[in-house]
Specification:
single chain, mainly alpha, 4 helices, 3 strands
Length: about 190
Amino acid sequence: AKDLQAHLYRGRTLELLTNPLLKLYSRVGEEEELFRARCLEAAEDEADKEVAKLRDRFERKLATARDRRDRAALRVRELEVDVETRRQQEIVSGAGALLSMFLGGKARASKLSGISSRRSQTRRTQERLSTATAKVQGYEEEILGLEDELAADVQAVWAEWEGKAQEIEPFEVTLEKNDIEVEEPVLFWAPVSR
């Protein structure tokens, strides 16, 4: 019995699989495909944890960019109304009034200055509108840039953990002496009938 126990201790091993990066070991009798699937699932869980951290960081950035964009869009709408109002006032006061008064020689310089001042205000308001519109576009591009950055970061996280899931290697498990129990050997003989 002791010789059999010593023989089993020295000669018997069990080959299992391990993923040291994920700290996973295959179970006795578990097929390699099932162990690989389990490693991939564990890697997905770890990747999800990292992506959750990214989500927190990007939510703040995205909220700030959207807030700025929305405020700029509101300013654009205000300026559009202002420009339209100023144009209507110019039309009501008479299109070409400045030219006809000037060429007619009947207007005084103060009246001509007032008409040209309104025209200048309209142009300045149109310039502010153009600037505000450019700001909205800039903020929209910033949001798209954040989305692209997030997509790249998520892909990098997944690629890292997917690679870790593939790091599988075999290892041998030897028996411990106290794992082996030999009961009293019994010899049984049965004649073979021919």
